Amino acid sequence: MTLSVLTKRADFLAANAGTRNARAGFVLLTRPNSGQGIRFGITVTKKIGNAVVRNRMKRRFRELLRAALPTLGLPDHDHVLIGRAGGIERDFHLMAEELARALARAREGRGDPSGGRRPRKGDRKGGNRP
RNA sequence: UCAGGGGGCCCGAGGCAGCCGCGUGCGCUUUCGUGUGUAAACAUGGGGGGCGCGAGGAAAGUCCGGGCUCCACGAAACAAGGGUGGCGGGUAACGCCCGCCGGUCGCCUGCAAGGGCGGCAAGGGAAAGUGCCACAGAGAGCAGACCGCCGAUGGCUCCCGGAAACGGGGCACAGGCAAGGGUGAAAGGGUGCGGUAAAAGCGCACCGGGGGGUCGGCAACGGCAACCGCAUGGCAAACCCCACCCGGAGCAAGGCCGAAUAGGGGCCGCGCGUCCCGGAUCAUGUCCGGGACAGGGGAGUUUCGCCCCGAGCGGCCCGGGUUGGCUGCUAGAGCGCCGGAGCAAUCCGGCGACCAGAUGAAUGGCUGCCACCGUGCGGCAGGUCCCUUCGGGAUACCGUGUACGGAGACAGAACCCGGCUUAUGACGGCCCCCUGACGUU
User: Fold this and answer.
1) CA/C1' separation A99–B122 (Å)
2) Distance from residue A37's CA to nucleotide B383's C1', rounded to whole Å
3) Which positions of strand B lie within 7 Å of protein CB atoms?
4) Domains and CATH numbers, chain A
């Protein structure tokens, strides 16, 4: 099983409808991709900081995912990490632990409650696979 | 020479090791897949492993100048619009850089005239024209008279002397003046002497200024002597005038490749009921839009009612779009070293190396040690000080060991160069100016 990178905007938009697990440094989105293998993508918006800050965050996220996904990743799922302001220079080992827990929750099909604030319209069933 | 302060330029943008990774180029390897082939083998894709290279001085802002690409265009000139603005040099070019000139500010030197050093500034034209110069002030562009000065000359129904002529004094009416005060960013040359009733380039000397001459300089400009009594203040970053420069858009430029699906156009074959209205057309109609009737179909059948269809279908060809891929794409007005020319910017010659090409965007992640700063502890070696019994003790300075804490900037190539501007922490190196101390003359 090899890792591949998401490059299409449509894939990112689709992942937005998947299971959502938020941590201090990042938000993990997972969504089945019907047999495409383990794929991942990273989103860091301009709100986080300038290009230097954003690129460094992406590099560290890539390293986290490269270490975790082969053993802890969900097979045939897309994984998208969204950077949060709390993730700037957050301790690397701490974030590795948080990522492991978030992946475990996603594996159980559980995400954060969507709440009335940001409705996700029924796509929640995407995480309810056997 | 040292210390402190200010300014400018250059280098560098922590180092090493271990483990795990990323991008790219080139070899190697493979009982792997696919294609061609009788085979050998070749091509291509995948796996494994090796070697080389892999962010910046600003990669930033996108403010100028170019290369390159496409578009437009006979050439050139003019007009419009925009830009630049002392002179010379450098450059592919520039609004950039270097040198110089003039201006201005500060410091030093000198009796002075002058000279030296450093800094600053978009520095063509104000007798081509137009416009503006607030407030204050008497007066601000045909200059002007508030306070003031004078009142020689003329005047006075003033005072004294005198017979008178007149003399002396007074007044400040006419009038004269612009020195001094005052206003202002700016008041129409400055200082001094003469002169005068008081004054004034009214006269003179020096300084400043002017146009012409002459000498020097490639030039900006400078020197000199004579002449002119001074004859037109500032703003051109207000319009404007003069000289010179400029076609536009940008790598999302531009070129190439091609699938599925949907849609467009053309041709051919078959098919396409009648009538009416409108549109388009010079006109015809197998043109376009709408309507009525006939016709066909649907709900099991028939009648009535309702709904739908009422012109396409098939084949071939063509061009375009979306997404995607390839290319442009990195060897260059480049880099390093040496030599030469030049005050310098820069240029010339020789030698050498190949030095990022990503595209949801590589150039990294983690750990340890060292290096920088601060604090505490140990006193381990040295220095210093104390007691002095070969030894012991203290230690604020320096080395060093250790523990804890801190700092580690600005910032990430996106077609490529030359500049400018802006942002930037620590340590270095060089230069200039100012201040202080010491030493020498």
Assistant:
1) 61
2) 73
3) 21, 47, 55, 359-367, 411-413
4) 4-108 (3.30.230.10)
- Name the pairing type of β-strands A26-32 and A77-83: antiparallel
In this prediction, does ipTM exceed 0.90?
no
Task: Mark out the alpha helices in chain A (DSSP H runs).
Answer: 9-15, 51-72, 92-107
pLDDT at position A102 over 50: yes
A43 touches strand B (CB under 7 A): yes
pTM: 0.66
